[in-house]
Design brief:
The chain is of the alpha/beta class. The protein has 22 helices and 19 strands. Strands 3, 4, 5, 14, 15, 16, 17, 18 and 19 form a nine-stranded mixed beta sheet that branches. Strands 8-9-7-6-10-11 form a six-stranded parallel beta sheet, with helices on both faces. Keywords: Cytoplasm, Histidine metabolism, Lyase, NAD. It is an enzyme of class 4 (lyase).
């Protein structure tokens, strides 16, 4: 069957032959057995409801074997035979171009070059899923192929509930992931209900089809590393940044270090993903011996090299060895997936990768003990370096949170509201006050034609727009503008594309709207093909996350999620092509609510109206919340926005004299 025929077929009437398990693919670890015998029957009943009864006797033992062997029912037999990648938009069988763009983005998220565990439909973070099983994928693609522009596809945590009548200005797809009743949002709840097949962890951009590979976070990481060095008054040249994690988003770190110009050491325990990053050019060298690593780093320091080195091993060993060898670490962080500490997000020191995976599945209580022991040791090693002047920051992966739960020595001796830990979140000290409060965040786009020349043209358009805006930008945002122009000018030479022809750029509302408008005009003139707009949920207003995105909110509201909910509601009626709302982004299940969107630009006047309405709201919703929390940069930014938009009227905070409060 052709690609188009397979898409239109959906769930096949005749079952395909079973697919052999491919050991060469990077697979998700086995999930722990958590279902009771009755719940296992329910999981099987839930999986079989996708299929005609005539197939149940064939599929039942197969699905039972998957559940026993992997802890989940992935339906490997249903994996398509065609290659998984983002095809040019015209190659999709679709009645709606908007729907075709969504199909493109789904396939990009599952591209083997992009996805962390492609056969388990997991894009990044160890558990960030696009779908729970292959039947959901097939049915969703069929619905998208059949959809017209007066229908909306409703997605319940990976399950396509169906097409419903709507209207042309409504979103074509509405996505929810993991939206649990609050009392059922603990880590083991995810294990249980995901195994039952009734919910999933969409991470941030995985479950909303907007992941663009490690590039998606390279820019933000580059900004963080650059400003980290600015914060300690050092040039990156010849100075050291130590971190860990190469799997999904974390794979961006060595590339960002190279762009910033420092010496980056990034530890990773998974041999397959380390080799993938080396082959992709996201790291320069791989070292497996600690003594060799020390010698190589000392040479890089002497020569003031810009280099990224992957250490294939545990990062705890690196921190300890560098202390023993008197190697000064200038910047330190960690980006292992500690939102998922018990199922592959963090590997304890002194256990091999294989032994850890075995213990994780077959002795989960002992594995948890080992992880917590390792976190305590990890924190102790970091503390030794910070006492010697290292600047350490949490990269929003729940490292400090899980270390605190393990009893590690990372709590502040003088805690204040929002500053409980010894070390800041990078949002608290860098991204929040410098970027998010002013409205700057990770705006991204994908060229739906699949043509590299279209991406080059959009890069040039974006650069021209930013340079023009910068001429009249206030002093408060000149640094942000300069950093972004430098980034976009170097985007091609840094070879950031993995998967689709995509780009990311930190921009404020003015920048996003003007860049998008320029794209739309270029499409209307036939200079480029359709463009899909989106962003990371890690942004100004898409996400309520008390230990990351909203960690620099100090009015006590950082544990609320009104902003993220309003964000997705507002985007949905202002013109987004699809919207999503998730529980459990990059910091963990039950720890965050985040919303995202996608928008298709087709060169029409209607698209021009939608982009202005939606992008303005998408940013300024968050600025207004940050302003109400009395964040100075946000107060400045929202006042400026009100000056440019007469229909915007935002409640501004009045400040209280601290001396007055001392009188009570």
């Amino acid at each position: 069957m052709s690609f188009k025929d397979q898409i239109l077929e959906g769930i096949p009437n005749t079952l395909p032959q079973p697919k052999p398990y491919d050991p060469n693919i990077n697979h998700a670890p086995k999930r722990k057995a958590i279902l009771s015998p009755e719940e296992e029957k329910l999981a099987l009943r839930n999986a079989l409801r996708y299929f005609d009864k005539k197939h149940h006797s064939t599929l039942l033992p197969e699905f039972k074997e998957e559940l026993d062997k992997y802890g989940r029912i992935y339906m490997y037999r249903l994996r398509p035979d065609y290659k998984m990648y983002a095809r040019p938009i015209d190659e999709y069988p679709a009645k709606s171009k908007q729907a075709a763009a969504i199909m493109l983005m789904i396939q990009n998220n599952l591209d083997y070059a992009v996805a962390q565990h492609p056969h388990e439909l997991i894009t990044y973070g160890g558990n960030g899923a696009v779908f729970s099983n292959w039947a959901q994928y097939r049915l969703t693609m069929k619905y998208l192929a059949e959809m017209n522009d007066e229908q909306t596809l409703v997605m319940y945590s990976g399950h396509p509930m169906g097409l419903f009548p709507s209207h042309k200005e409504a979103p074509r797809v509405v996505v929810t992931n993991g939206m649990m009743i609050p009392n059922y949002s603990k880590p083991d709840d995810w294990e249980k209900f995901n195994a039952l097949g009734v919910t999933q962890y969409g991470q941030m951009t995985a479950g909303s089809y907007m992941y663009i590979g490690p590039q998606g976070i390279v820019h933000g990481t580059t900004i963080t590393v650059l400003n980290g060095f600015r914060k300690i008054n050092k040039s990156p040249k010849g100075h050291i940044f130590v971190t860990s994690g190469l799997g999904g988003m974390s794979g961006a770190q060595p590339k960002a270090g190279n762009i910033a110009g420092c010496i980056t050491i990034c530890a990773e325990v998974n041999p397959k993903i380390t080799q993938i990053r080396l082959d992709q050019g996201w790291i320069d060298e791989k070292i497996t011996d600690l003594d060799e690593l020390v010698a190589r780093v000392q040479k890089a320091q002497t020569n003031k090299e810009t280099i990224s080195i992957a250490y294939l091993g545990n990062v705890v060993e690196v921190w300890e060895k560098f202390d023993e060898s008197n190697i000064h670490i200038d910047l330190g962080s960690d980006q292992t997936s500690l939102h998922n500490p018990w199922a592959g997000g963090y590997y304890p020191v002194e256990l091999s990768f294989e032994d850890a995976n075995d213990m994780m599945a077959n002795n989960p209580d002992l594995f948890k003990t080992k992880v917590q022991e390792s976190l305590r040791r990890h924190a102790t090693a970091i503390n030794k370096h910070t006492e010697k002047g290292t600047y350490f920051f949490d990269y929003g992966n729940a490292f400090l949170l899980e270390a605190s739960r393990a009893g590690a020595d990372i709590m502040s001796k003088n805690p204040t509201i929002g500053r409980e830990f010894k070390y800041p979140s990078y949002v608290q000290d860098i991204m929040g006050p410098m970027c998010f409060d002013y409205g700057f965040g990770p705006f991204r786009w994908v060229c739906a034609s699949g043509k590299p020349e279209d991406l080059a043209k959009t890069d040039a358009i974006a650069c021209e727009v930013l340079e023009e805006i910068m001429k009249n930008s206030p002093e408060e945002i000149q640094q942000q503008m300069a950093d972004n122009i430098q980034w976009i000018k170097g985007a091609q030479e840094n070879k950031l594309v993995v998967g689709s022809q995509a780009r990311i750029l930190y921009a404020d509302a003015e920048g996003r709207m003007k860049i998008a408008q320029a794209f739309n005009e270029a499409i209307a003139k036939g200079e480029i093909g359709y463009v899909v707009l989106g962003r990371d949920h890690h942004d100004v207003s898409g996400t309520d996350s008390p230990y990351r995105e909203t960690s620099n909110i100090y009015d006590g509201s950082r544990f609320t999620s009104d902003m993220a909910i309003h964000n997705v509601i507002g985007d949905s009626f202002r013109g987004a092509t699809w919207v999503s709302i998730h529980n459990g982004g990059g910091v963990g299940w039950g720890e965050v609510i985040n919303g995202g969107f996608g928008m298709v630009l087709d060169g029409t006047k209607e698209a021009s109206t939608r982009l202005r309405q939606m992008l303005f709201w998408d940013v300024n919703n968050g600025i207004s919340r940050r302003s109400w929390a009395r964040n100075e940069g946000a107060v400045f930014a929202i006042k400026r926005a009100m000056e440019t938009e007469p229909n915007l009227k935002v409640t501004l905070p009045n400040t209280v004299d601290d001396n007055l409060l001392e009188t009570i």
